């Protein structure tokens, strides 16, 4: 599905924690997330820390949308 959306001219970024799966389905722009049950948060941390985690990953995804790439790329995030 990702490939078809990109062929139509829409940039796509996938946020996921299973990077090998994202690569195998052909996603070109991949942003790692935190965990399967909580992709953009960590309930073991404070709400303030969770907000920082979410904001950072969304900012990385938005930056990825604007970049031209030639091959599959996993964008770096802070841990």
Quick summary of this structure?
41% of the residues lie in helices and 11% in strands. The chain has three helices and three strands, in the order αβαβαβ. One of its GO terms (molecular function) is oxidoreductase activity, acting on X-H and Y-H to form an X-Y bond, with a disulfide as acceptor.
Query: How many structural units, i.e. domains?
Result: 1
Nearest-integer average pLDDT: 91
Low-confidence stretches: none
The percent range for strand residues is 5-15%
Q: How would you write the strand order of the largest sheet?
A: 1-2-3
Helix content: 40-55%
Number of helical runs?
3
Q: Structural class of the secondary structure composition?
A: alpha/beta
The main β sheet shows up as: 3 strands, parallel
Order of secondary-structure elements: HEHEHE
Instruction: Kindly provide the radius of gyration, computed on alpha-carbon positions and rounded to a whole number of angstroms.
Output: 13 Å
This entry's quaternary arrangement is: single chain
Tally of DSSP β-strands = 3
Per the principal axes of the C-alpha atoms, what is the gross shape? elongated
Span between N and C termini? 29 Å
InterPro entries: Various_sel_PB
Protein name: Selenoprotein B, glycine/betaine/sarcosine/D-proline reductase
Organism: Desulfuromonas acetoxidans (strain DSM 684 / 11070)
GO molecular function: oxidoreductase activity, acting on X-H and Y-H to form an X-Y bond, with a disulfide as acceptor
């Amino acid at each position: 599905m990702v490939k078809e959306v990109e062929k139509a001219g829409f940039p796509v970024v996938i946020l996921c924690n299973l990077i090998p799966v994202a690569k195998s389905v052909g996603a070109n722009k991949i942003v790692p997330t935190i965990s399967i049950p909580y992709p953009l948060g960590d309930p073991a941390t404070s709400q303030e820390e969770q907000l920082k985690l979410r904001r950072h990953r969304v900012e990385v995804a938005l930056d990825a949308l604007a970049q031209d790439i030639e091959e599959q790329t996993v964008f770096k995030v802070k841990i």
